[in-house]
Specification:
mainly beta, 140 residues, 4-stranded antiparallel sheet
């Protein structure tokens, strides 16, 4: 079994809400709505999920496991409060990625690490679900 991207969002209504959120869509094209790219890998003893999220800090992320769904999210704001400021184009950004976790994963041993702009999440498999390498049996 493999890691599967999980999407429980209903895109169309949220797109409509976003369009009418700022001056009836006048600011829609200038906003940065990006979701980080993901690589998923299955090894013999674990799964790995890598997210490309450069320029962030590890404190910016929230990783939750909710009923066999791994939810990775972030919210950052780069605003500055100043009475003399006349234009503020710093923005607020957020994302959420969700993945269904297979039954073969040992959920208590999931670990995450952030280094050089890559958030790595390792999901170790339970010992009984690790497949043993093929071996040749000699005929006697």
């Amino acid at each position: 079994m493999r890691i599967v991207k999980y999407n429980n969002n209903n895109v169309f209504p949220s797109l409509i809400n976003e369009f009418f959120n700022d001056d009836f869509g006048m600011n829609f094209l200038n906003r940065s709505h990006s979701v980080p790219s993901v690589n998923s890998l299955e090894n013999n003893d674990s799964f790995e999920i890598d997210l490309a999220v450069p320029g962030m800090k590890k404190e910016d992320f929230t990783i939750e496991l909710n009923d066999k769904v791994l939810i990775i999210s972030s919210e950052t704001s780069n605003t500055m409060e100043n009475d003399k400021m006349r234009l503020n184009e710093f923005n607020f950004s957020s994302f959420q990625r969700s993945f269904r976790v297979p039954d073969s994963v040992d959920q208590d041993k999931i670990k995450a690490n952030y280094k050089n702009g890559i958030l790595k999440i390792k999901l170790p498999k339970r010992k009984e679900s690790i497949s043993k390498p093929n071996r040749v049996i000699n005929i006697g």
